[in-house]
Amino acid sequence: MMYQDLHMAKVLDILEYAGFTTSERCDVRPRNFDFVARRRQLLLIFKVLTNIDGISACTANEMRCLAEHLFGFPIIIGEMVNKRPRASEPISKKVI
User: Fold this and answer.
1) pLDDT of the residue at 5
2) CA dist list (Å): 16 to 22, 52, 70, 78, 89
3) Which of 3, 43, 49, 57 could form a disulfide with 78 if both were Cys (CB 3.0 to 4.6 A apart)?
4) Gap between the Cα atoms of 1 and 63, Å rounded
5) Does residue 37 belong to any structural domain of this protein?
6) Where would I find the beta strands (DSSP E) of the chain?
7) Distance separating alpha carbons of residues 65 and 54, to the nearest angstrom
8) Distance (Å, rounded) from C-alpha 85 to C-alpha 59?
9) What pLDDT does residue 73 have?
10) How far apart (Å, rounded) are the C-alpha atoms in residues 65 and 56?
């Protein structure tokens, strides 16, 4: 299993523990998101990357647009920034 698959499995486990229902992984190309999760009225659209800098501005904008149309929220999760492990803060904000 690839590292990114392990990372995604970890995210899915956390969401399941928190009571979210998750979709199957989106494998259609081009894919601008990996999966969606819902808990009651809250809809989250996820993209999971090893290096968060690997997301293009186009993909980020398409995720934002999709989230607006579905009344959801785009979430991008990454393990590294600039090919280095992220700082210890659990959340960082990058505006694209």
Assistant:
1) 73
2) 8, 23, 21, 19, 23
3) 49
4) 26
5) yes
6) 21-22, 35-39, 42-51, 73-81, 84-85
7) 19
8) 22
9) 94
10) 14
Cα dihedral 14, 70, 92, 55, rounded to 10, equals 100
Note whether residue 91 is domain-resident.
no
How far apart CA 35 and CA 47 sit, in angstroms, is 7
pLDDT in tens, the chain (96 residues): 466 677 788 899 999 999 999 998 887 766 788 899 999 999 999 998 887 878 888 888 999 999 999 999 999 888 776 666 555 555 444 444
Predicted confidence at residue 39, as pLDDT, reads: 95
Whole-Å CA distances, 13 to 50, 65, 87, 95: 17, 27, 23, 27
Number of domains in the chain: 1
